[in-house]
Structures are given as C-alpha cells and as structure tokens.
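User: I need a structural model of Bet v I/Major latex protein domain-containing protein from Populus alba for a docking pre-check later this week. Nothing fancy, just the predicted structure tokens so I can convert them on my end. Input:
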Amino acid sequence: MKDELSEETLVQAPANAVWSAYRGLELGRLVDKLLGHVVGKVEVIEGDGGVGTIVKLTFPGTSGGYMKEIFRIMDDEKRVKETEMIEGGYIDLGFDVYRIRLEIIEKDAESTIIRSTVKYEFDDTKTELASLVTVKPLQTMAEEIGKHVSEKKYDANNL
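Assistant: Understood. Predicted structure tokens for Bet v I/Major latex protein domain-containing protein:
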C-alpha cells in the first residue's frame, strides 16, 4: 500500500529565510536547539548537508529509540528537501518506505507556507500501520522554526 499525508503551515517570515533554516544541516541544528526535548537529538553520520547526507535522530526518553535518514533531494531553486528513512523508526515498525518532503512556498514578501508531506509504503497485509503515520511532529517543527526565523530575522543571504 502507498499513501501520503500532508499539512501546510503558514509562517510570518520570508521564504528565502525559512529555506535557509530548512536546507542542509541547519534544520538538524535548529531541531536540537528548539525541539530536542520533544523530537530528539540530531547527529550527522555522514555528509555535508547535500544529497547523500545521513543523519541519526535519537528520540528523547527512550532506551535506544532512533531513526536514520538519508537526504534524497536538496533543491535550492524550488526550496524542496526530501529525506528517506533507512533504519530504525518506522522501518523497524514494518514500513518499506518512509519519506519526508519539506517544501518552502513563498506566499508573499513576508509570509511563507511550509508544506510537510509524509510518503509511505508497506505490505498490503499490514494495513494497521497506516494509523501510525502522522505529520504532527513536522507541523510542530514548522511552527517552531517559523517562529524562530521570524524572531531572529534570519539571514536569507547566508545559505
């Protein structure tokens, strides 16, 4: 079975500034700083933030709970970042594919829509897995990153 869930979050910050926070490894640094207690600790395993980079997210309050993901798409022109889970997390639960796509869409000069999409696949006999999929952590991340970028007047030229 293949499916996807998507959520759009409006933030009051320019798209270039939001993208500079989302692209490459900056998102992991901000997640550690702003949401580490909720989402977990992000660690770079391999790479410099471009396509092929592998990061590990260790979940807070768990003994050994983690996931590793690889950056599959990093498009500065379209402001799209896509990662795929390769170990732990949803893969350990039985998913065959679990991808996260983050799109930064300019609404106007001072506001941006962050579209967070989860694309997933699993064996048709495991339909109960669909109930585990949520975009809520990505929505929370979008809200917090958007608020941070807006308050800090993030330097959009510092890609």
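Before docking, keep this in mind: The chain has one domain: 2-152.
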